[in-house]
Amino acid sequence: MDHSGPTREGGELALALTVNGEARRLTLPPNVTLLEVLRDRLGLTGTKKGCDHGQCGACTVRVDGQAMNACLRLAVMCEGQEVTTVEGLASEVGLHPVQRAFLEHDAYQCGFCTPGQMMSASALLEDERIGSDDAAVREAMSGNICRCGAYKNILEAIHTAREELASQRKEGGIS
Amino acid sequence: MDTTIIGHRTPRVDGEHKLTGKADYTVDWQADGMLHGYPVPASIAHGVLETLHLEQARAMPGVVDIFHHDHFPELYRSPSSAAHQDQVSEVRLPFEDERIYYDGQYVALVVAESFEQARAAAHAVRADYRQEPGAVASLLDTEQEGRLLESEGVCRGDPDTAFDQAPVKIDHTYHIAAESHMQMEMHATLAEWRDGRLIVHESSQGVVYQHKALARIFGLPDEQVEVVSHYIGSGFGNKLFMWPHAVATAAASQMLGRPVKTVLPRQQDMESGGNRPASRQRLRLAAERDGRLLSMRHDSTTETSFVHAYVDSLGSATPSLYACDNVTISQRLLEVHHGTPCPMRAPGETSGIHALETALDELANALEMDPLELRRRNYNRSDPAKDLPWSSKHLDTCYDNAARRFGWQHRDPTPCAMRDGDEFLGWGMATASWGAMRMSCAARVELRADGSVMAACGTQDIGTGTYTVVAQTVAELTGVALENIEVRLGESTLPAGPLSGGSMVTATTLPAVAAALRDAIDALKEAATGEGGAFEGSDPQRLEIQAGALVDQQGTRVGFAEILTTLKLGSVNGEGQAAPGDEKRQYSFRSFGAHFVEVRWDPGISRLRVSRVVSSIDIGRAINPAAARNQVEGSIVMGLGMALTEKLDYDPRDARLINNNYTDYIVPCHADMPDIDVELLDNPDYAFNEFGARGVGEIGLTGIAAAIGNAVYHATGKRIRDLPITLDKVMTL
Predict the structure, then answer these.
(1) Using one digit for the tens of pLDDT, what is the confidence trace for B609-646?
(2) Strands B675-680 and B607-618: what pairing?
(3) CATH number of A97-170
(4) Which of A119, B251, B280, B548 is deepest in the core (most CB within 10 A)?
(5) Where in chain A is the domain with CATH 3.10.20.30?
(6) Do domains B31-133+184-234+239-272 and B344-437+585-732 have the same CATH topology?
(7) Nearest residue, CB atoms, B18 vs list A52, A111, A135
(8) How far is B229 from chain A (nearest CA, A)?
(9) What is the distance, to the nearest Å, from the Cα of residue B680 to the centroid of all Cα atoms in its chain?
(10) If 0-12 CB within 10 Å is exposed, 13-18 middle and 19+ buried, where does residue B220 land?
(11) What is the pLDDT of residue A6?
């Protein structure tokens, strides 16, 4: 990873990062958040803005694998990093197990917080520090508000996705 | 009717769009040359705007224009008529005068090339105000009574005399703080003018209403306006009717000749984008010693702003819920200096039933009677308010089932008597209810030569599952697979459909879709029996549609795609209308249910949690049981917030909103979740419509806060009559 940081070009800054596996180069003012870069400049509008203050979790993306609020991260801090958004969750073989489980369990209503819920869910399912019981999952997901209140179904979906990921691992699928 | 798709769980037809980021919410739309709007909110609640200092903001990078009182076009007010469907949330136009009526009222709209530039410039606008004394923050902070609304009054029998003479009575006053909808997608408008035609993308629960209101305000013929709202990051009532940000954005776009998008920041959304008004309710209930209600007196006051008279009708359910001959309802309205209130999920009755169901719990205590038994003793079989039989009422089954699943028979009636280790258990219950509404509606259906079916209606899917239940209806009536059905909603140029409010979309829309579909099938039969048709010369009456094919009595089947292709027809079309009819004179339509709640109170660490909710709800037929159950579960979650944490805090000194964000206004999160067990009875209400559905979006929120409060009383022995039941109240009372 290059730690030299972004370079200045006429008041704006140059940024190189990877988004959903694709290398991106941008020039932008330093006060632009990762969220705005994704939505306004890269057209990846699946990531949502619910508060712009890191309070609701709708903008959760994964930065080098870690779930983060894209609204709290200046884009220029992401130099050299790998960002995954909801648009990058599915693969060529189809929907991610988390997406399939959300569909099956009706784990949403309006769908606006859903990308953020799923990005947090996909991260926690890979995080061995977080337990698999209801209380641990609820605690880990509590940065993602769902005002429609589909929490019960989201919890069930996460449990189902965990089982599917485990059986995929057994079959030597996704590592 | 026997159904194979309606009444059965199926994944949402729009699910994959929502799960892959493809769903096009208003905030996701962009247009060529689009500018960004950012409103400047007033920083006082009561006074006059004297001077706006714009020089610094105007000189900032990317700023294109700043609109305000002295720089804004002359527009018309919308008549704001429900009957003419041009209702708005605030009749006052943006920047109309220089008075400040509430904190957060727009004093300017900055328009710039980028969002960051608009935001920076809006923050650089300075304003001088002449603040006036006497700002009223909330009805909770004043002794003022407000004005009596004669039109809201109801009286039957002689409630005063019956109350005075009754052997057992209670008389208590309940307060509920103002609440915020906190829908995840903030209010947003993208306005664009093309050849004099106004095209608006709005996160809206009512595209037809906004269309008409914009036409009135800009003085345009209806044909010159279009409002689009394909996906809505929910609304809960505050997106039913247009707010001033949309008018300001459309006007800015007109003046600048470029598209303008305004997304309210969360703080402004909470200040000026609607709220459930605070309320004060006095309940006087009287009963015989056997529990039979002798008198019910329900006197309410709600608040509104100084620019728009919104009335939250708190007493509207009270005359219908129980058998009682003597009932009076009154409603007062008080103007306060905060943002205009508007409907919020189960408006009026959520607050009213909370007070009534809490008062009944108090009455049960006074009678030394089980609170469920008190409700059973006052069960009614017809609607005493209308003197009509209920179309379909199964509340007794709801009581039985939910009580059994909850284990209510094990309840020790004495407060503070049930313990589990360090925790006191509290068990409480309440009745839920919401009226069944249905409006007139139009729809269009196309059967297409490629084998697909398109159904269109100018209503919206706000997350309740409207796309899916429309597709299920088409699938049920044609046998066409769900994946070959396209549903178009959320465009005001489609056949006029209902507001996504009042839990009425399903009952209103599906009969119109069915009518349009039958019209299209008739057209198909006519074509098929005509010259060159697959059933040339046959009697169209003798053909049936099955699994996407016409079938005659000999069993000959021809798919509609083949019929159309052979005839070189791209499609056959059907138009349909449906409206409520004579049934309203025969029956009263209302849904009922019951909530049973367990709370746990740990006095050692002052921790209060809802641990268990068991609900049984009768909504007629659930078209999609998964989506319907989700609505009730979500309502329970919202009710948990209403009961324990949610309160818009207006500073009593200056009426400014203090907690304008998700951290200080606390909505339930994952970690707050109790075990929730919801049962939906399945008793189709065919008197209401051919599909038997009465709607499900709101009923779950009624009664839940009362059941929680009643459980808190049972756990702690403390009756907290003011919502939310925050820990300070439990500890100090």
Answers:
(1) 999 999 999 999 999 999 999 999 999 999 999 999 99
(2) parallel
(3) 1.10.150.120
(4) A119
(5) 8-88
(6) no
(7) A111
(8) 13
(9) 20
(10) middle
(11) 47
CB contacts, 8 Å: B233 with chain A:
48, 50, 110-113
pLDDT tens-digit readout, B545-592: 999 999 999 999 999 999 999 999 999 999 999 999 999 999 999 999
pLDDT digits (tens, 9 = 90+) for A70-117: 999 999 999 999 999 999 999 999 999 999 999 999 999 999 999 999
The helix-helix angle for A114-124 and A97-105 (nearest 10°) equals 130
Residue B698 appears among annotated catalytic residues: yes
Work out the minimum CA distance from A90 to partner chain B, whole angstroms: 7
Of A47, A85, A106, the CB nearest to B626: A106
**CATH topology assigned to domain A8-88:** Ubiquitin-like (UB roll) (3.10.20)
What residues of chain A lie within 8 A of the CB of B22, using their CB?
Answer: 46
Name residue A30's amino acid: P
| CATH 3.90.1170.50 assigned to B31-133+184-234+239-272 | yes
Residue A167: partners with Cβ closer than 8 Å, 6 or more residues away? none
pLDDT at B732: 84
CA–CA distance, B23 with B14 (Å, rounded to integer): 8
Which chain A residues are Cβ-neighbours of B677 within 8 angstroms? none
Q: Assign domain B344-437+585-732 one CATH number from 1.10.150.20, 3.30.990.10, 3.40.470.10, 3.30.365.10.
A: 3.30.365.10
B201-219: pLDDT as tens digits: 999 999 999 999 999 999 9
Chain A: residue whose CA lies nearest to B268: A51
Q: What is the pLDDT of residue A173?
A: 54
Total residue count of chain B as it appears in this document? 733
Residue A47 Cα, gap to closest chain B Cα (Å): 7
d(CA B458, CA B509): 9
Binary contact (A146, B626; C-beta < 8 A): no
Q: Which of B90, B271, B357, B698 is catalytic?
A: B698
A-chain residues near B116 (CB < 8 A): 29, 31-32, 36
